[in-house]
Design goal:
Antioxidant, Horf6, Chain A, domain 2; binds benzoic acid; Glutaredoxin; 2 domains; elongated; 3-stranded antiparallel β-sheet; 5-stranded mixed β-sheet; alpha+beta
Length: about 240
């Protein structure tokens, strides 16, 4: 790619750019191999670095929790396959951190030494680094559409409660046709779609249909935590 070539970066609501890649779990065809599941595609700057190691141990420890919410994980860095394999082996055999030990990373980690995928997904951000991917997180839904994008700098490890909260919130918003207010967590009230006309809005504000309306454009309703989690989590 030429230095000043304008690239179109993935955006929320658009199809996830396609690629084939070699990973620690064999070849993948993204996002086709993940149709029917949610998938989080995330990048890290480099193998054998401390923040990335803490993140990988946390992701691997939470993998089953993400899987219960029908979500697979795929990692990427611009390191090669043998570096990935050696790093993941070191994590399993040597690193004990915050009660995590003997941690096996079972999800695929993409080798991207050409930076082809990293560039396609806007993971190389030259103000931060020309040679390493930033900490990007792409949530791709079961139809292959990008639903959320997060970027963190090299020096800041991600918040995994937030990564999980986003996944549950996206799925709950879809399933119950609602939106989630600031800091929403399962069990909190949710926002019902804005009424289409003034008349409907007035009716809504005056009725006792279980809504709490703060004004004509801002109504919430209760959504039970069990109802949310039962709708999302796979029964094992
Ligand atoms: C880290 O994961 O610790 C790290 C990686 C690249 C730059 C700075 C920190």
């Amino acid at each position: 790619m030429e230095e000043n070539q304008v690239v179109s970066l993935p955006r929320i609501g658009e199809a996830a750019p396609e690629f084939k890649a070699v990973t620690t779990q064999g070849e993948i065809n993204f996002p086709a191999d993940y149709k029917g599941s949610w998938v989080i595609l995330f990048s890290h700057p480099a193998d054998f670095t401390p923040v990335c190691t803490s993140e990988f141990m946390t992701f691997a420890t939470m993998e089953d929790k993400f899987a219960e919410a029908n979500c697979k994980l795929v990692g990427l860095s611009v390191d090669g396959l043998y570096s990935h394999i050696a790093w993941l082996r070191t994590i399993k055999e040597k690193i004990q951190y915050k009660g995590m030990k003997d941690v096996e990373v079972k999800f695929p980690l993409i080798e991207d030494i050409t930076m082809e995928v990293a560039k396609k997904y806007g993971m190389i951000q030259p103000g931060e680094s020309n040679t390493k991917a930033v900490r990007a997180v792409f949530y791709v839904d079961p139809k292959g559409v990008i639903r959320t994008i997060l970027y963190y700098p090299l020096s800041l490890g991600r918040n995994f409660d937030e990564l999980y909260r986003v996944l549950i919130a996206l799925q709950a918003a879809d399933k119950f046709s609602v939106a989630m207010p600031a800091d929403w967590r399962p069990g909190d009230d949710v926002i019902v779609p804005t009424a289409g006309s003034c008349g409907v809005a007035k009716e809504r504000m005056e009725s006792t249909n279980g809504l709490t309306c703060y004004d004509w454009f801002f109504c919430t309703k209760k959504l039970d935590k069990d109802q949310v989690m039962n709708a999302i989590l796979k029964k094992s």
